[in-house]
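Ticket #4471: structure output looks truncated?

Reporter: J.K.
Steps to reproduce: submitted the chain below (611 residues) through the standard prediction queue, then opened the result file.
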Amino acid sequence: MTKLWFSLSLKPLASILLFSSLTQTQNPTNPPIALTKQVFTTLLQSCSSYPNHLKQIHALILTTGLSIKNSLITQLLTNLTLLGDMSYARQLFDQMHKPRVFLWNTLIKAYVKNGIFTEAAFVYRQMHLLGVRPDQFTYTFVVKACAELPELWAGSAVLAHVVKYGLEFVAMVRTELILMFAKFGELGMADFLFETMVDRDLIAWNAFIAACVQNGNAGQALALFRQMDVAGIKPDAVSVVSAFSACGQLGCLENGEEIYGIMRKYGIVCNIIVANARLDMYVKCGSIDMAEALFEDMPQRNVISWSTMVIGYSINGESEKALNTFSRMQKHGVQPNHVTYLGVLCACSHAGLVNEGKAYFSHMVQSGNKNIRPKIEHYACMVDLLGRSGHLEEAYNFIRSMPIEPDSGVWGALLGACTIHQNVELGQRAADLLFEVAPDIGSYHVLMSNIYAAAGRWDFVDKVRLRMRKRGVKKIAAYSSVECNGKFHIFYGGDRLHPESSEIYEKLEDLLRQVKSIGYIPNTSSVFHDVDMEEKEATLSSHSEKLAVAFSLINLRSECPIRVVKNLRICDDCHSFCKFVSKTTKREIVMRDKIRFHHFRNGDCSCNNFW
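Returned output as attached by the reporter:
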């Protein structure tokens, strides 16, 4: 027997072979060893990573009559689910006599871990119909499964069951419910569940903060992060990563630096995940110098670090540095992925490097590496590269030759290029196809309207607006935000609700006088045609980015750059205005719009008017 136990601790295959010889021997002087529960337990542990061996053991268990021992079957089922052999595991489960709740939980958990969410929900329904009472561990995984289903109704039904069994105040169940409702965009319900939670531990705080960030509610995420300290909850690396991500979404560098200070205060280790999150925050705040300093100082870098810098340089108008960083990355032996190449193509697009962009894209197609195989985003970037550079027909033919179906992003890139180059005919073709795949996106209708307006075809502008009204398509309201002393100030076009409105408009009038005196001429080409020139200029003068710049000049220290975040593309007139303001005031203006950053310094922009 000693020899047997020693062999079981060596190799799984040797264990199986030894069992076969010992159980089949016909030598009367060496009788078969009794296959006890203890022997099978050890054998299952030894072969836990080998699905075929586990099935052989199952056969042996059946021949010995030990299959009635639920503990052995439980161990076998657990091993199979960990290996992802769900088909065999399900057959084994269905043959079990009155499985305990632990086994139901094991099966549901395995389906969730393997991404088979519908089946996980079905098993729970079967469990419910058979009258098996679920426990808190059941709902932890059932709610996870419901969060991945197409609709919320199943999750809402499960919530009713959770309340029925009195498990609604169990921290891990409630945390999963919060995440589920947040994932479906029901932030009101998620917030209610969080605020009424009896025992809010660090996991719950982190989960809800991360959910807010993922759903684009970065302001609430930062507010929650600050509430943690008041509640006596010490943040960890997970908390900090979410907070940095929220700052990046909002473009608030001051808050990001404050969070870095909190991180140091609590002695949170700056591992590569935290460092990458901070790096991403600097990039999205337009502070490329700080991002560069952090990147060079990082003791360890991975593909995320390198890709973040490539993208950061490209969207901040440093295309040459983006491509140089890409070359450095390859020399360091770091394999680029599809995100890296997105940054590379973006750099080529923003710099008009058509031939270089084509070469990079061809490499992606021909390399055979699935990690860099072009996705729809890369095709859209190539259309943008060709179209922005004036190769509109080539861009159109490129779309027509795509091996995958073009989406709204691809056609939208072509329409945007037609707007830049005022190509009405091709713009109309692109718009017709675009409205088929994305009829309800207002920004595309506005682009087409702008093309017509620039060409003076106001009758077509009216037709586009009429079509929008008939279809109920609404234009997205443009707004700009500014961070000042840790607080956010949001401005809409013509906004007079801000407490400092009088001072802002007074400052704006003064700015307009200054910039007009050195050559600024308002670009009124896309303003309504049925109003006089004075009214057109008044409409332009109250654009949200102009109000944000005027507010910043009043409230920010003279040595601080002015950082403005715009939810849409900056218009031609505001772009020109910011160049002149940077020249007259000697202030740097960093404008982040929907596409990229514009760094205005001394009358010039980092985009070199190629935007």
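Triage note (M.O.): checked the attachment and the full token line is present. The longest strand covers residues 479-484.
Status: closed, working as intended.
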